[in-house]
Specification:
This protein has 510 residues and is an alpha/beta fold. It is built from 14 helices and 19 strands. The chain has a 9-stranded mixed β-sheet, sandwiched between helices. The chain has a 5-stranded parallel β-sheet with strand order 12-11-10-13-14, with helices on both faces. Strand 7 (142-147) and strand 8 (154-157) form a beta hairpin. The longest helix has 23 residues, at 291-313. Mean pLDDT is 94; it is low at 335-343. The structure holds xanthosine-5'-monophosphate. Xanthosine-5'-monophosphate (XMP) binds next to loops.
Length: 510
């Protein structure tokens, strides 16, 4: 049985990060909301439990609490921040509110040098973010670390395998955070650390084979990372029992549709159904200039075409999706009974019937999906593909979308990508593309006056795409890109660089 650690979510902002940091040590971690019944937790044979942080105070009775019997299961528990105070509260220690918060990088002193949790960890810097603090550890607990302002920065009841830290070991600002989590996982919980992507592939392929049997599977393939990796996994499991439906609405990057088709038909065993509907999309988009109208038309048309094709292919069997873990996690932020609605989880029309839906990647984070993709031999262009919006180049063309404008944009975008690759900046930039603002300006080519399109380059760095900074691409790289675009691409005589951060600008222009 797979060993796993439970991350019990009390609404903290770092819950996914905690799970990812545990998985960095080759131990599977899953996130469950604090509303999960104790009986369910008992039945899962967890090797350890981590209480996350949370925005609340334990004395506010509306804040998330948990049955204190969880501490009596004999399963090691690590409380982090709010989770630390909660453990103290559950065992009747004292939590008080400080006059000032302790926030930022703080030095802690380790008081118990032979603590398993602090094995090989010296006095060092940690990341604190709290107002409430433990003024008296519960009976049976000893204080294992303190800071100048926090009398109990960590505490433990080693006999009962209960550990708690006021700081955040999961963030990189905590110097020995990685080591502390590793100590919890291996020294306290006794994990073996054998959850590796190679094993994941083997187990998933076996269970897919078992589940699918001799039936068919249909997968919607967008060419994005998630659906591509799901396709490769399913192909490895059931070969040509798999049919991938790829809708090319003519709004992909230059030659991208052909690349996706070639990759999957030449490298993987499957039925590949490509629906080319670029002309129909252009016809539907005729006259539309408002960004939201265009998005709606593209979205509606896409799903019409997609579901019609799926309906044709549906013949009992299974429908597969490239849903990944962050799309499925129930959060502990008070909406625990609601699974996040997300564009990766799409609602199928009622008249289309499959035996079941298969989501082979629903346990993995994005970086793990990429690792699986690499191991399955998917080309790196696909595995490391930057995010690409569902409406494709449609959100990068201002004004009416025409075939000519798409071609202009695709050409300039291809030059940009080529130069970024040559300059070695690919992995440093989170997303980069060109935009056609539908603006004409005057220029000069040889002896001729020109009046042609302006192209804008957009390149950003970001961790989460919620906020972003414009990328500081060196001027000489920008100069090469600009030169090549005006020389090699028809109908462009000027190139500008978008230096707006998000907010106030969004990453896409429409
Ligand atoms: P914005 O423009 O909102 O973009 O700053 C944030 C990120 O989301 C991507 N994006 C989309 N992705 N469907 C998608 O799947 C969409 O309709 C869509 N619109 C924007 C955008 O490329 C960026 O990575």
């Amino acid at each position: 049985m797979k060993e796993k650690i439970l991350v019990l979510d009390f609404g903290g902002q770092y819950n996914q990060l905690i799970a990812r940091r545990v998985r960095d040590h080759n131990v599977f971690a899953e996130i469950k909301p604090y509303t999960t019944p104790l009986e369910d937790i008992k039945s899962e044979n967890y090797k350890g439990i981590i209480f996350t942080g949370g925005p609340n105070s334990v004395y506010d009775m509306s804040s998330p609490h948990y049955d204190s019997a969880i501490l009596d299961l004999g399963i090691p528990v690590l409380g982090i921040c709010y989770g630390c105070q909660l453990m103290c509260f559950m065992r009747e220690g004292k939590v008080e509110s400080a006059l000032t918060s302790e926030y930022g990088k703080i030095n802690i002193n380790i008081d118990k040098k032979n603590s398993r949790l602090f094995k090989d960890i010296p006095d060092s810097v940690v990341w604190m973010s709290h107002t409430d603090y433990i003024s008296e550890a519960p009976v049976g607990f000893e204080v294992t670390a303190h800071s100048a302002d926090c009398p109990c920065a960590a505490m433990e009841n080693a006999e009962q395998k209960l550990y708690a830290v006021q700081f955040h070991p999961e963030v990189t600002h905590t110097e020995y955070g990685k080591k502390l989590l590793s100590n919890f996982i291996f020294e306290v919980c006794g994990c073996a650390g054998d959850w590796k992507m190679e094993g994941f592939i083997e187990n998933t392929v076996n269970s897919l084979r078992e589940k699918i049997g001799g039936k068919k599977v249909v997968l919607g393939l967008s060419g994005g990372v998630d659906s591509s990796v799901a396709a490769a996994l399913l192909s490895k499991a059931v070969g040509n029992q798999l049919t991938c439906v790829f809708v090319d609405q003519g709004l992909m990057r230059k030659d991208e549709g052909d690349f996706v088709e070639k990759t999957f038909t030449s490298l993987f065993d499957m039925n590949f159904v490509r629906v080319n509907c670029g002309d129909e999309f252009i016809a539907k988009l005729k006259g539309a200039t408002d960004p939201e109208d265009k998005r709606k038309i593209i979205g509606t048309e896409f799903y019409n075409v997609f579901w019609n094709k799926i309906r044709e292919e549906a013949d009992g069997g299974f429908f597969a999706q490239g849903t990944i873990y962050p799309d499925c996690i129930e959060s502990g932020k008070g909406d625990a009974d609601k699974i996040k609605t997300h564009h990766n989880k799409v609602k199928m029309p009622d008249d289309i019937k499959f035996d079941d839906v298969i989501e082979p990647l629903c346990d993995l984070f994005k970086d793990e999906v990429r690792r699986v993709g690499e191991l399955l031999g998917i080309p790196k262009e696909l595995v490391w593909r930057q995010p690409f919006p569902g409406p494709g180049l449609g959100v990068r063309i201002m004004g009416e979308i025409t075939k000519e404008k798409i071609a202009i944009l695709q050409d300039a975008d291809a030059v940009l990508r080529d130069e970024i690759a040559k300059s070695g900046l690919e992995r440093e930039l989170s997303q980069y593309f060109v935009v056609l603002p539908d603006v004409h300006t005057v220029g000069v080519m040889g002896d001729h006056r020109t009046f042609d399109h302006l192209i804008a380059i957009r390149a950003v760095t970001t961790d989460d795409f919620m906020t972003a900074d414009f990328a500081r691409i060196p001027y000489d790289v920008l100069a090469r890109i600009s030169n090549r675009i005006v020389n090699e691409c028809d109908h462009i005589n000027r190139v500008v660089y978008d230096i707006t951060s998000k907010p106030p600008g969004t990453i896409e222009w429409a």
